[in-house]
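Lab channel / #folding
Pinned by the channel admin:
"Please post every new chain as: sequence first, then the structure tokens as a reply. Keep commentary short and put observations after the output so the thread stays searchable."

First post following the new format, from NK:
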Amino acid sequence: MIKILKFNSRRKGQIFLIGAFIIVISMILIRTTIDSTNILENQIYIESESEFFNFNNIRQEALKSSYNSINNTSKIADETNSFISFIEKRLGGRATKVDGIIVTLLYEELEISKNTLVKTTFYNYFDEEIPKAILNLSTNYNSPIIFNNITNEIRKDNFTINIDSNKNITLWIYYETPNGNVIENITIPIKVNKDSKFLSYFDLRIITDNTEIRDKFSEIIQIN
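Reply from TO:
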């Protein structure tokens, strides 16, 4: 009986040591997994912060792009659209997708009770087709500009307006995307005596492996 007791005690001690060893190894593996998860989460957080920084930089530069041609209004819309095309191609090589919509509007030397040409562009740089887009002005509700089946391209068209008082104009923007329809209203302050303005509207989206950022913003430039 004494030998059996000694044998069982030794066996129990071995089992205890093996169990303790397994527990220690398990804790090490769990700690390693937690550390790896934390490192991955921190990396994703840092990358996300960097992406927000990049997005804000692009947003600011997009708004500034129109000013590059403020003294050459014939190129001002092209300058704005070209900037986004450049960013789209530049970041495409870094596994970053840039897409969205740009709408521009330009009128020059607007005067009361005089016909004025209002030039517009609608640029779809989403990969998906925009089935329909509508632009309208508060002075031209019965004569909207309608674009259909816009696929990664720039469409152009014009309004002719004739205002009878010094009041604001509203640009109404509508377009259909796979993620839902968008409606935006932008108020344009009117100034008599040959008023000239350029408006740019952006629906900008950036997609990476870790995040998606999207924002809509606009800028109105007084040309004269």
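NK: The CA atoms of residues 128 and 179 lie 10 Å apart.
TO: also worth noting, Confidence is low (pLDDT under 50) at residues 1-7, 34-49.
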